[in-house]
Amino acid sequence: MPRLALASLALVGLVTSATAQTYPDRAITMIVPFAAGGASDVIARIIGERMGQALGTTIINENVAGAGGVIALNRVAAAKPDGYTILIGNTGTNAASYVLTPDVKFTPASFSPVGLIAKTAPVLAVKNDFPAKTLAEFVSYLKANPGKVNLAHAGLGSSNYLICKNFIAAAKVEVTLVSYRGAGPALNDLLGGHVDGVCDNAASIAPSIQTEKVKGLALASAKRLEILPDLPTSAEGGLPEFLAEGWNAIFTPAKAPEAVIARLNGALRSSIADPAIRKRLNELGSTPADEAEMNGEHVRRIVESDIARYKVTLATKD
Predict the structure, then answer these.
(1) 107-165: per-residue pLDDT in tens?
(2) Dist CA 149 CA 309 (whole Å)
């Protein structure tokens, strides 16, 4: 190998080593693609605080809402890949967006996955005075009143939007979908009675169900949650096809140094291993990632698989 090439490789090695030793030396910004109050926001705050402690710095959560996460991902894709701008993404922002908005300026290659945080539990809920009390009654009501019932979600391409789409396909009903800039604003309008129902994740809606501010109809997962023991699964409610488990993961802009990604991954792993963090995530109805899931390659495979799936299931836009 030419001496110049060897010298270049050596220089890269020195830079990488130096990066590993000094990173991070200032605060890190974690971009949250939705408004405050939703599942991604809640999980970002929990994991961000603990990862910051592990890294010896502060992770500042910044909510960048709009276009189902596209605005936030545009920002992260264009950010300097130095590890000081990271993203909490999900199946909507980092997979469905490519199908729903094919002209986006970023691609899956625009991001380097760090690792999975947790898997989330999807919930279908309605306002307390809605006539239907069960999932079966809700489906019957929708079929008798096509297009007259509205369901709120966190924005086109969000994981909550995908929950709605999955429900509509499984139940074979006509529903009017109402888009918001995040799960928090959508839930607020449900609490205010401005919409009939909402597609959400347990991480953000569980407290409202527990305090009987809204009426949970079904959990679109295989088994019930300890925090919502009385909320039946979709299969128990007579609609086993309604399954829409989601996930949240950490990403950096593409071409972030391997040493930086390794540092972030180590902080993520130590955070998820913390019993207090696992307890908090479980209390939110989220399943903490296991050891095999907390790596970039696992997240990359999930993204590829979800994109392929959504090309089939998301044939039309709303």
Answers:
(1) 999 999 999 999 999 999 999 999 999 999 999 999 999 999 999 999 888 899 999 99
(2) 27
List, in sequence order, the alpha helices (H) in 192-257: 202-210
Total structural domains within the chain: 2
**What is the Cα–Cα distance from 191 to 275, expressed in whole angstroms?**
33
Question: Is residue 210 a part of any domain in this protein?
Answer: yes
pLDDT digits (tens, 9 = 90+) for 252-270: 999 999 999 999 999 999 9
94 and 76 within one domain:
yes
Q: Is the pLDDT of residue 77 over 60?
A: yes
CB 231 within 8 A of CB 216: yes
* 97 plus 169 within the same structural domain: no
Q: How far apart are CA 296 and CA 156, in angstroms?
A: 26
C-alpha separations of 268 from 53, 77, 121, 161 in Å: 11, 21, 21, 27
- The answer to whether residue 3 sits within a structural domain is no
